[in-house]
Amino acid sequence: MFNKILIANRGDVALRVLRACKEMGIQTVIVHSTADAESMPVRLADESVCIGPAASSESYLNIPSLVSAAAITGCDAVHPGVGFLAENADFADIVIAHGLAFIGPEPDHIRQMGDKVQAKISAAEAGLPLVPGSPGAVHTIEEAHKLAEGIGFPLLVKAASGGGGRGMKVALSADELSVAFSSARSEAKAAFGDDTVYLERYLDNPRHIEVQVIADSHGNAVHLGERECSVQRRHQKLFEEAPSPALTDVQRSHIGMIAAEATQKMGYLGVGTMEFLYQDGEFFFIEMNTRLQVEHPITEAITGIDLVTEQIKIAAGGVLPFTQDEVTFTGHAIECRINAEHPETFMPTPGKVEYYHAAGGAGVRVDTILYSGYKIPPYYDSLIAKLIVHGRDRDHALARLRLALQEFVVEPMPTTLDLHRRLVDADAIKTGNYSIKWLEQEFLTS
Q1: Which pLDDT belongs to residue 163?
Q2: Is residue 291 annotated as part of the catalytic site, yes or no?
Q3: What is the dihedral of CA 369, 373, 374, 379, to 10 degrees?
Q4: Whole-angstrom distance, CA of residue 106 vs CA of residue 147
Q5: What is the b/e burial string over 219-228, where b = at least 16 CB atoms within 10 angstroms of the residue's CB?
Q6: Which listed site, 127, 195, 371, 407, has its alpha carbon 20 to 30 Å from 161?
C-alpha cells in the first residue's frame, strides 16, 4: 500500500480523497493555488504545497509544479481527483515516468476514451450498443452530407475531443448541416485545440443514464449499478439519482452486465463510468469517463462500497474484494449539486460566506469545503457543495431531500439551493418522468 499520496486537485473532491487516505492510514499532501491557501483541504492535510497563483493554467494544470510537489514531499502516488488533469493521459504518463503511481486508469485507456471517435470504435469492439453515426472522424462537409444520407436526420455534429456540450451542433435537415458542421469544428478548435468532429443520429428526447464500473489488474470487473443524470442545463448535470426511475430490474441488470463485460474486455483498470442515452427502451453508448465522477456518492450510498478507497487499493495492485454476485443495492439515493450561482440567471456568485449551516439527519451526507468565513474564489468551477440523501425507496429519499434543502443555509450569496427547493416539488421529479430536455425546455421556462 502507498505511504503518501499527493492529491492533485481542489475543492470537495480533494477533501473526499483526503478523508479516504486518512481512513487507510496514508499520509496526504494537498497542492493548492494562492487562492485556495485557506481552504479546508489545506487545513486538514498532513502537508500542503503552494503550486502557483490563482489561474488554473499556472497551478492545478501546471504539470511540472505538481510532479515537483510530489517529489519534494516524498510521495509515492498521485490522485488526480475530478476535473483538471484527471483525464489527461500525458499527465498520467509523466507521473508514471517519475516513478510514481497514478491512481487511475492506464494512460492508454485515458487517451483512447478521451477521443470520442476512438472511444466509439473501442466500444463497438467491446460489444457496446452505439448511436447510429459515422464510423470515424468526418473531415469535409462533402463527406458529412454523403454519410448523412445513410444515417438520417436529425443529426448531431460532435467534437471528438473535450465535452461539457462544447463542439456539439444539431442539424435538423441537410440544409442545416453545413452550418452545424463548420460551427462545431470552429467551437471545438477554440475549446480543445482540435477541430475533429464526427456524426451521430440525434435522439430527440432521451434520458442520460450512466453505469459505474470498477476493475482491478487481475482480470476482475464488475458494475455497481446505474445513475440517472438527465436533469441537465447546457449539458451540465444538476440532479442525479440511483437507481434510475425509468428502468426495470431486467433492464438495469442487462445494461450493467454489458458495461461490466466491456470493461473486462478492454482490460480497464480502476473506476470508470459508461455513459448512455436511453430512449424507447434502447441504450446507446456515448462515452466513458475514465475517472471518479462528481456523483459517485449516490452509488456509494446504495451499494455501501467506498469507491475512493477501492480506487486507491486497485492502483496499489489490490484485488477487488467482491464479485458481481456479492454487490447488493439498497434503497434510493439522490444528489443535488449546489453551485455558487444565481438560481435564475445562473451567473456565478463568488464571495465570502458569512453564515453556513449544513443539512443533517439520518441518510443525509454533505460533501463540501464550505465554512463560515470561507471566501468562494471566482477562478474555478462554481460547485460549492453536494447534498446527498439516501432513503429506503425513492419517495423516502425525496422526503429526506426536501427536509435537507430546507435546512441547508449558505449566506449571503445566492446559490442554486433555491432552484433545488423548487425542483424537488416539480411533478416530473416526483414521478420520475423527465428527460435531458425537461429542465431547460419545461421547468426553467415555466
Answers
A1: 67
A2: yes
A3: 150
A4: 34
A5: ebbbbbbbbb
A6: 127
User: What tens digit of pLDDT does each residue of 144-188 get?
Assistant: 999 999 998 999 999 988 666 778 999 999 999 999 999 999 998
Q: Are residues 73 and 166 in the same domain?
A: no
Please compute Rg for the chain using Cα positions.
Answer: 21
* Grid coordinates belonging to 100: 510514481
pLDDT tens per residue, range 231-273:
999 889 999 999 999 999 999 999 999 999 999 999 999 999 9
Q: In degrees to the nearest 10, what's the CA dihedral of 152, 227, 119, 232?
A: 60
* 3-state SS, residue 68: helix
Q: Residue 268's CB: how many other CB atoms inside 10 A?
A: 23
Summarize the confidence of residues 368-390 as an average pLDDT.
97
pTM of the model: 0.90
| Three cell numbers written together for 183 | 460551427
In a domain, 108, yes or no: no
Residue 294: all three cell numbers together: 462528481
Strand partners, 271: 214
**Number of structural domains found in the chain:** 3
Mean pLDDT of 91-120: 94
In whole angstroms, give the CA distance from residue 259 to residue 214: 10
CA separation, residue 219 to residues 30, 109, 125, 343 (Å) = 32, 15, 18, 46
Structural domain boundaries enclosing 195: 132-201
Cell of 66: 505538481
Evaluate whether residue 412 is within a structural domain: yes
Q: Does 153 share its domain with 297?
A: no
Distance CA 352, CA 293 (A): 27
Alpha carbon of residue 188 to chain centroid: 20
